[in-house]
Amino acid sequence: MTTQPSAVVFPDGSIPTRNLDEFFAEHRSAGQCFTIDPARRTTLVGSQGTRLTIAPNSFLDPSGWPVRGQVNLILREVFSRPDMVLSGLTNTSEDRILESAGQLSLEAQCEGEGLSLAIPIAIDLPLQAGLDNPLASQLFSGGVSQTSSFGSGLRFDWKSAKAKNIQLKTLGEKKYLHFPINQLNWWNCTSFFHRRRSRIMMSLRWSANETPVEDVAAFLVFKDFNAVVRMYPSRHGFSSWNIPKDVVARVILLGFNGKQFLMGKSAWAPTSSQPILVEMESTTKAAIQSVMPEYCL
Q1: What are the residues whose beta carbons fall under 8 Å from the beta carbon of 34, sequence distance 6 or more?
Q2: What is the pLDDT along the chain (297 residues), one digit of tens a residue?
C-alpha cells in the first residue's frame, strides 16, 4: 500500500511570535500528515521524494502494546540551506561541519498519544545533485550540543547514530540513500566536511541602525556545499571556530525585538579570520521566508 499525504499542515503566519526560537519552531513544525492502518505494510512518499516503508505492527503505545487503531504520522523533510536556516537546523556535530544529503523527522500518534517503534522503518532518501561522495554518508540523530559558549543556551546538534548500513539504492530511474531508523526523531544522512583546509575562528559584529534588538541569531551559509553553521554569541557579536579557510560563504543575521523582525547579510566571500560587519534592517516574517532562497543559494 502506497500512501500520499492526505493533508499538508503549515504554521499560520498570523500567529504572534515572541522570540526567534518560536520562529524556528514554527518552521520545524511544518509537516505532511498521513493516516495509516498499522496492521498493513505501507509505503509513504513525502513531497520532496522521501520514501518510508513501514512493516505491519511497527508501532507501540506508551504501555508497550502493539497499536490497533489508526496511526497519524507527521513527516518533515529539510533538504536545502534556506530551510535549514528557517528551521534553525544547522549542520554540525560538536562544531564539526557536516555536508547534508537530507534531514527528516517522523512523529506518530494514536488517539493523541505519542508512539514508539517496535520495528525499524526503512527510509529511502532521494540522492541530491552535487553531493561529493554519497557512499561516505553516515546517519546522525537530533540532540543537544555539549559544546556551547557562555549564554548561548541549549543548541540543537547532530549525534552519530553509529549506523554502518547506509546503502545506495535504485528505484526506477532514481537513486536513493537507504537506511533504517529505530526511533521517531530527527535524522540526518550526512558526511563530515573532508576537504583539506586550514581551520580558523570567524567573528562577526553587527548593528541595527539604533533599532533595539532583544534576540539575534547568526548563520554561516556555505555556497558550494550543503551546510549551515549557527554562530555562537560572543562579547561583541558572534563567533565560530573550526571553520575551513578559503571556502565561499556568507553570514545571515536574523533579529527580533518583540514586535519587529530584522535581517542582514554579508557578501559571498572566502572564509577568513578577518572580522565581518553586518547591518540589519527592519523586515517582516513573510519577507524573510521569501528572500531566504535567494540569500542562501
Answers
A1: 3, 5, 6, 44, 72, 73, 74, 75
A2: 555 554 333 344 445 678 999 999 998 877 999 999 999 999 999 999 999 999 999 999 999 999 999 999 999 999 999 999 999 988 999 889 999 999 999 999 999 999 999 999 999 999 988 777 788 899 999 987 665 543 445 678 899 997 667 899 999 999 999 999 999 999 999 999 988 889 999 999 999 988 889 899 999 999 999 999 999 998 889 999 999 999 999 999 999 998 899 999 999 999 999 999 999 999 999 999 999 999 998
Q: What does the alpha-carbon distance between residue 9 and residue 30 come to, in Å, rounded to a whole number? A: 6
Around 29, how many Cα atoms within 13 Å sit in the side-chain half-sphere? 10
Q: Which residue has the cell 572564509?
A: 271
Q: CA distances (Å), 261 to each of 12, 89, 127, 252, 257, in order?
A: 17, 19, 35, 13, 7
How many CB atoms are located within 10 Å of the residue 41 CB? 13
- Shared-domain flag, residues 173 and 76: yes
State the Cα torsion 66-68-70-71 to the nearest 10°: 0
Give dist(CA 76, CA 104) in Å, integer: 5
**Do 157 and 229 form a contact (C-beta atoms < 8 A)?**
no
Backbone φ and ψ of 161, nearest 5°:
-85, -5
* R_g over Cα of the chain: 20
Supply the pTM of this predicted model: 0.89
Among 130, 160, 192, the domain-final residue is: 192
Neighbours of 125 (CB within 10 A): 28
Residue 182 sits in the same domain as residue 216: no
End-to-end CA distance of the chain: 37
* Residues 23 and 129 occupy one common structural domain: yes
